[in-house]
Structures are given as structure tokens and as C-alpha cells.
């Protein structure tokens, strides 16, 4: 079945440390891939997206993601986390022929001072 | 620039009462529109999507319904709310043509008592 998996439900990092959030997808062909961030009580904000081309994608707020076809992964990274990055992060996929996004279950990020 | 609005921001309703949530998009025409629900501790569930006025596709059978009376207006309704309808309701839109990226509104928090 087509799906998006975020293996980590909750991640805790110290401010200034590096961050990597994992995302794996299961589709016959490479879908369009997205990362969104949701602060408490807020809507989802698009961080970055991958459609094709360069496999390292730069996004807003200093985030980047790397698409790896061989691993069916699209992991989100940030070199140095800020306290304001504490939020829930969602990976999502859109198959080329579909209109509906499929979301992962989300990863809650806690940032320690 | 395009913006998306949702109201109300928060709603507390008794079981069995009706519901009407509104979503409007500004600065674009003929968008695809989506309603999602996010229950506590869960990911996002697509409820309805619309590709045009009067065109509604339902993804999950339930006591909710959606309507699109105008190009940039999307309404989520219920005749009788259930406790299980509590959650965070998000509206999203994509520009057409070529609308792969969904942009989300600020959401409505619904508590059914």
C-alpha cells in the first residue's frame, strides 16, 4: 500500500545541536515530497518540497532535505536547532496522478535550552 | 498575494448541534480546496476535496458534508455533531493548473461536549 512513514514519534535535541527527522515513502514511482511544520494550535507551514532534479532541497528557516531514491527516503535536516523550531513536523507525499496528499503521522520536536 | 482564512478559530458545541465551518481563499481563482481533520495525537485525515464550484469528493464516510457555493469558498457542515467530531479542522488549497503544493489555513479548533 502507498504510505508515508515517520519512524520517530518524538525527538528531543539541545539548542544548537544538529537535527535529522526521518521520512520514508512507499510508492511505485517517486512521488512529489513535502515537509510541513505545525506549531501548537496553528496550521501547517510548508518548509520545502521536492519534485525532481537536485536531490538536496533547501527550504525556509534553515532547513534542508535530501531525497534518496535507493532508500525511499526524504529526511529533513538542520545544522543548528533553535528553540523556536520546537513544533510538530509532517512529511507528505503526492503521487503524480493523485490530488490528495498522504501525510506521515508526524514527529514532535522538543528543543532543550 | 494569496491568503486563506478560516473561521471561527475556536468553537465549542454540544452533541447533536449543527456545524458550519468556513474557509475562503483570496488572491487566486479556481483553486482546488481541501478539508482535513486532525484528531488529538493523530495525523491528518483528508475529509473532502473540491476541484470546482459544486464539485465535492468525499474521502471518508461520516456525518460531515462539504459544499462549495462560490469559487473561493469551502464550507464544512454537519446536521448533528458527535463527540468524535472534536478535533482541529484545516482547510487547504492548491493553485490550478499544476497545483501540487497545498497551502494550509490557520485551522478551527472544534470541541464537542
Characterization of this structure:
The complex is a heterodimer of chains A (113) and B (113). With 113 residues, chain A is mostly beta strands. Chain A has no helices and 12 strands. In chain A, strands 2, 5, 6, 10, 11 and 12 form a 6-stranded mixed beta sheet that branches. Chain A is globular and about 45 Å long. The termini of chain A are far apart. The model of chain A has no long low-confidence stretch (mean pLDDT 93). Chain B is mostly beta strands. Chain B is built from no helices and 11 strands. In chain B, the strands form 2 sheets. In chain B, strands 2, 4, 5, 6, 9, 10 and 11 form a 7-stranded mixed beta sheet that branches. Chain B has a 4-stranded antiparallel beta sheet with strand order 1-3-8-7, with no helix packed on it. Chain B starts with a strand and ends with a strand. The A-B interface holds A 32, 34, 36, 41-46, 49, 51, 90, 94, 99-101, 103-106 and B 6, 32, 34, 42-44, 46, 49, 51, 59, 90, 92, 94, 100-107, 109.
Helix/strand order of chain B, N-terminal first: EEEEEEEEEEE
Q: How many beta-strand runs of chain A?
A: 12
Note poorly predicted spans of chain B.
none
Strand content of chain A: over 45%
What is the quaternary state of this protein? heterodimer
- Element string of chain A (H = helix, E = strand): EEEEEEEEEEEE
What Rg of chain A is obtained from the alpha carbons, in whole angstroms? 13 Å
Bulk shape of chain B: globular
Strand content range of chain B: over 45%
Number of helices of chain A: 0
Instruction: Supply the helix-strand structural class of chain A.
Output: mainly beta
Q: Kindly state the number of beta strands of chain B.
A: 11
Terminal Cα span of chain B: 38 Å
Amino acid at each position: 500500500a502507498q504510505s508515508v512513514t515517520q519512524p520517530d514519534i518524538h525527538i528531543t535535541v539541545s539548542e544548537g545541536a544538529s537535527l535529522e527527522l526521518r521520512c520514508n515513502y512507499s510508492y511505485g514511482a517517486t512521488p512529489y515530497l513535502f515537509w510541513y511544520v505545525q506549531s501548537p494550535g496553528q496550521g501547517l507551514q510548508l518548509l520545502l518540497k521536492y519534485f525532481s532534479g537536485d536531490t538536496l532541497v533547501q527550504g525556509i528557516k534553515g532547513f534542508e532535505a535530501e531525497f534518496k531514491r535507493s532508500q525511499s527516503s526524504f529526511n529533513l535536516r538542520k545544522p543548528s536547532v533553535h528553540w523556536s523550531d520546537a513544533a510538530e513536523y509532517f512529511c507528505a507525499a503526492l503521487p503524480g496522478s493523485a490530488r490528495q496528499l498522504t501525510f506521515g503521522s508526524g514527529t514532535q520536536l522538543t528543543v532543550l535550552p | 498575494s494569496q491568503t486563506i482564512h478560516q473561521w471561527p478559530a475556536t468553537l465549542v458545541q454540544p452533541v447533536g448541534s449543527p456545524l458550519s465551518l468556513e474557509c475562503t481563499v483570496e488572491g487566486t481563482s479556481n483553486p482546488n480546496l481541501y478539508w482535513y481533520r486532525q484528531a488529538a495525537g493523530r495525523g491528518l485525515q483528508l475529509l473532502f476535496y473540491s476541484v470546482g464550484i459544486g464539485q465535492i469528493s468525499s474521502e471518508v464516510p461520516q456525518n460531515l458534508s462539504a459544499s462549495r457555493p462560490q469559487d473561493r469558498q469551502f464550507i464544512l457542515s454537519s446536521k448533528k455533531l458527535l463527540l468524535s467530531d472534536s478535533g482541529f479542522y484545516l482547510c487547504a488549497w492548491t493553485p490550478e493548473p499544476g497545483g501540487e503544493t497545498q497551502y494550509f489555513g490557520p485551522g478551527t479548533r472544534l470541541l464537542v461536549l
